[in-house]
Amino acid sequence: MNKNKKLTKSKEIGIFLVLLAMILVFSILSPQFLKVNNFFNITKQIATLGICSVGFTFVLITGGIDLSLGYQISLINIICATLMTKAGVHWGLAILISMLVGTLIGCINGIIITKTGVAPLIVTLSMMQILNGLSYLLSKGLPMFGFPKAFSVLGQGSIFSIPISLIFLVVIIVIGVFILNKTYYGRYFYAIGSNEEAAELSGVNTGKVRILVYGLCGFFTSIGAILLLSRLNSAQSATGAGFEFDVLTACVLGGVSSNGGKGTLLGALIGVLIVGVLDNGLLLLNVSEYFKLVIKGLILLVAVVYDTMSRKNSEKIKRMKAINVENA
User: Fold this and answer.
1) Would you say residue 188 has pLDDT above 50?
2) Residue 254 C-alpha from the chain's centroid
3) Domains along the chain?
């Protein structure tokens, strides 16, 4: 096992210990926390966050970001709800169309970033505003409900007491791990995030890979959005507002570098669990929603600062070693 893998593993162990400490604290502060039903509630609540984090992890590893994710969720919810309630489309077909729209949005983000060279932050921030406007135009700002019972089962039902949303989450994570660790595209993701110029010189079609990454992010986001719609049983234009920051917090907290080139889905999953446990625990303690925002903001800030400082220290050590070798 090389040094980078050892460092990654030690970080994952560290954040896992943080997760265990949080569970211990909340179990002491709230007697309801350790109940089985509450843990199932947590898995349902984090299903969308976890699924979206898979695609977002791919984007971060390549050195990108997608701030439009939250309003992708909103628009996909509105489109899927409109198809089922107003257009009379079968819920299965409505899901497929919504997933196609989500994937298309992701691909459009990737194409614009690749072809124009504009920073992903600016492109996806602009796309966020566009999607926000479209979701309000389609819904006229009104909530939409009245979905088929079969559709609601996806986010609310269970098989042998196991929430269906948890099954979806596990399957998506397995697919994500396979893509990242068992395919050459996964290696390309890390190569581009570490050094895009070197990846190009090695023959990697970086533009094609970036479009693929954002397309996958849109695809996974659409699945998470549909599960969220099914669980809430209501579509609103503001449903996904700010959700991208929860996903970003979970990924960076889980050791996925905001600067690209580093991170694992296992770490991201632990980050998702931390965010989910934090939300649930604070809810049980009747903590104000605004105070929760402050806590999440601080956690994201600390995680990003730590990631940036670690990267700078690592680069400094590499430069010093290179100088010592030259002087030897």
Assistant:
1) yes
2) 11
3) 42-308 (1.10.3470)
